[in-house]
Amino acid sequence: MIDLALIDYILIFSFFAITLGIGFFVSKKSGKSSAEYFLSGKTMPWWLLGVSMVATTFSTDTPNLVTDIVRNNGVSGNWVWWAFLLTGLLTVFIYAKLWRKSNVNTDIEFYELRYGGKPAKFLRAFRAIYLGVIFNVLAMAAVTLAAIKIGQVMLGLSALETIALAGIVTVVFSTMGGFKGVVYTDFILFFTAIIGGIGAAYYCVNLPEVGGLENLLAHDNVASKLNILPDFSNTETLITLLVIPLAVQWWSAWYPGAEPGGGGYVA
User: Fold this and answer.
1) pTM of the model
2) How far is CA 263 from CA 43, 48, 57, 83, 146, in A?
3) Residue 188 and which of 54, 79, 174, 252 are 20 to 30 A apart at CA?
4) H helices within the chain, ranges in order?
5) Residues 163, 24, 109, CA angle at the centre, nearest 5°?
6) How crowded is the C-beta side of 94, counted as CA atoms within 13 Å?
């Protein structure tokens, strides 16, 4: 457990208090109708929705994944994200407008609109069970496990204590504030994570054990992993990091928001 000062606890609990405060603040307006609750009345500006989507990738599991990629494959290992380039562009510039025109509230509702008969009902039920239950349970389990590890190391909390504290706050503000409360909270979370990440990096780099940025970059375990571009002379690397992502994974891989699946674009 890391020894935290009073200011650390003030910052942590202030963040939870602000999160809950946002939920209470927007709860009255969010409760006016289902469209207001789930889609904020479709009045959210594009930049705020964009920040919210980016803030979602600051979840406890994603930074750990990126860290693992850089540690094992170097900075160039992040070329795997090219897999979502085409779907991201198509969703933003083409499918988002079509989503708004369809006047649906969820992707499940879209399937009922797009396809008819029993096959549509089966598809709707399958996605509701697979994504709404199985996929969400796995995703939340991964995020929760990462939070538990951080809570144990940073605060000395047990798994149940971490889940109870973070879970109660999250459930309360998201239930009361609806989609608008989530987006507003994400906006604050984004800048909190950016400032905190830069501050933590600055502190760690200047620790005596590291000796500054120059010493870090010159270290044998780091110097070989700094290339932004992968080694294209290596056929295996080229296929893994560029060919497969752009030729196959962009249409075969799925994660929330990676393809025209609605989400924040409906709002």
Assistant:
1) 0.76
2) 15, 14, 14, 19, 24
3) 79
4) 6-30, 34-39, 46-56, 61-73, 85-90, 96-102, 107-114, 117-129, 136-155, 159-205, 213-218, 220-223, 235-238, 244, 250-252
5) 75
6) 8
- Catalogue the long-range contacts made by 110-113 (C-beta closer than 8 Å, 24 or more residues apart): 110/262
Residue 186 near residue 52, CB atoms below 8 Å: yes
- Per residue in 195-226, pLDDT tens? 988 998 898 899 998 888 888 888 888 888 88
pLDDT band at 259 (very low <50, low <70, confident <90, very high): very low
The whole-number pLDDT of residue 160 equals 92
Distance CA(78)–CA(225), nearest Å, equals: 11
Short-list 17, 19, 39, CA closest to 29: 39
- For 121-167, how does the pLDDT look when each residue is reduced to its tens digit (9 = 90+)? 888 888 888 877 888 888 888 888 888 988 888 788 899 999 998 88
- Residue 260 has what pLDDT? 44
- Per-residue burial over 54-69, b if 16 or more Cβ lie within 10 Å, else e, is ebbebbbeeeeeeeeb
The one-letter code for the residue type at 12 is: I
Per the CB < 8 A criterion, the answer to whether 99 and 252 are in contact is no
